[in-house]
Design brief:
Elements (H helix, E strand, L loop, with lengths): L1 E2 L2 E2 L3 E4 L2 E5 L10 E4 L2 H9 L6 H18 L3 H12 L6 H14 L4 H39 L7 E5 L16 H8 L4 E6 L7 H10 L4 E4 L4 H6 L5 E4 L3 E3 L4 E4 L2 H11 L3 E4 L5 E2 L5 H4 L8 H4 E5 L5 E5 L12 E4 L6 E4 L2 E3 L3 H7 L1 H4 L1
Parallel strand pairs: 6-7, 6-9, 7-8, 9-12, 10-13, 12-17
Antiparallel strand pairs: 1-2, 3-4, 4-5, 10-11, 11-16, 14-15, 17-18
EC number: 5.3.1.23
Enzyme class: isomerase
Protein name: Methylthioribose-1-phosphate isomerase
């Protein structure tokens, strides 16, 4: 995707360094950070310099590669796995990438690990780009079907929650990929962008869509049900941080409420699902998926641009009022119309996922 006309990925390797778009400052300021040490990578994941399950996984892979260049021993490989895996508990792509790295590197001689780890990190990043591109192609078919039923020139109205855009992946995004493909195909769309408190990740989605000239409006988290009641939403599409083998979907807090509203109003609710985000070891999302509790300051304070253009933080709650901050919730499979994967669209069920990914399901 492009920023001010320049193509970027959210993470890349340049001049022997791993660089990221530091998302703490978006949409107010575009900054690039360089990650060098294992602590840099752990901090970037934990403190949300990078966000989104696919991007977290790619970042962890590059973190392993950088630390193998420092110390390629078995002990350090295991320690790096532990340190990075402990940063965020919900997004399964983190563990998926770390497991893949460790399994690939363990049989190799320590002297070969640094080069091999970097090669694998590049591979994981490139794979993510292609997965998300294909999700966009498959999601485009759904948008085309909706567009064909609407009066000529009337946009397909989509609602999304959190940022499942290219900033949350290496490129394209998951939920946004069908939107970009629709725009390229000349299909008029309008996107309702949930603010997604407390981190206001919808502002990142709005920044992305605005940069690509896609019609959108930034709305409060509680506006979705109202919009659906009045026929202003044709389709809900969200991303996922972990999906169970039975089709339960864990995503940013508030997704479950959107699914309930969509179900009550007969609005199709789709989830853009890259296959590495499926946790084949989990069957009951509500009972088994660990939900991250983040710092209460994210709820009690908010960051924005002041009148003088500076970026500042202000308190929005009374002094002394504590904040609760569960970062994710689980939407049961029964509320999901379909899962848009890189291989096609399937129903949210054990049978549907097993048929689409038989090798992984086994």
């Amino acid at each position: 995707m492009k920023v001010n006309g320049t193509p970027y990925r959210s993470i890349w390797y340049e001049a022997g360094e791993v660089r990221i778009i530091d998302q703490r400052w978006l949409p107010h300021d575009f900054r690039i950070a360089t990650l060098k040490t294992r602590d840099d990578f752990a901090t970037a994941i934990r403190d949300m310099w990078v966000r989104g399950a696919p991007l977290i996984g790619a970042t962890a892979a590059y973190g392993v590669a950088e630390d193998m260049a420092r110390d390629p021993s078995d002990a350090n490989l295991d320690e790096t796995w532990q340190v990075l895996n402990a940063t965020r508990p919900t997004a399964i792509n983190l563990k998926w990438a770390l497991d893949r790295c460790r399994a690939y590197l363990k049989p190799l001689a320590p002297s070969d690990r640094a080069e091999a780890a970097l090669r694998l990190a590049h591979e994981i990043a490139d794979e993510d780009v292609e997965i998300n591109r294909r999700i966009g192609v498959n999601g485009l078919d759904i948008i085309k079907e909706i567009a064909a039923r609407k009066p000529a020139g009337e946009p397909v109205r989509l609602l999304t929650h959190c940022n499942a855009g290219w900033l949350a992946t290496v490129d394209w995004g998951t939920a946004t990929s069908p939107m970009y493909h629709a725009a390229e195909a000349g299909i008029p769309i309008h996107v309702w962008v949930d603010e997604t408190r407390p981190r206001n990740q919808g502002a990142l989605t709005a920044w992305e869509l605005g940069s690509h000239g896609i019609s959108h409006a930034y709305v409060t988290d509680n506006a979705g049900g109202h919009l659906m009641q009045h026929g202003l939403v044709d389709m809900v599409i969200v991303g996922t941080d972990r999906t169970t083998a039975t089709g339960d979907v864990c995503n940013k807090i508030g997704t479950y409420l959107k699914a309930l509203a969509a179900h009550d109003n007969g609005v199709p609710f789709y989830v853009a699902l890259p296959s590495p985000t499926i946790d084949w070891t989990v069957r009951d999302g509500v009972k088994e998926i660990p939900i991250e509790d983040r710092p209460e300051r994210e709820v009690t304070h908010i960051q924005g641009t002041a009148a003088d253009g500076s970026i500042s933080e202000v308190r929005v709650t009374p002094e002394g009022s504590p904040g609760g901050n569960p970062a994710f919730d689980v939407t049961p499979a029964r509320l999901v119309t379909g899962l848009i994967t890189e291989l096609g669209v399937t129903e949210a069920s054990a049978e549907g996922l097993a048929a689409m990914f038989p090798d992984k399901a086994a």
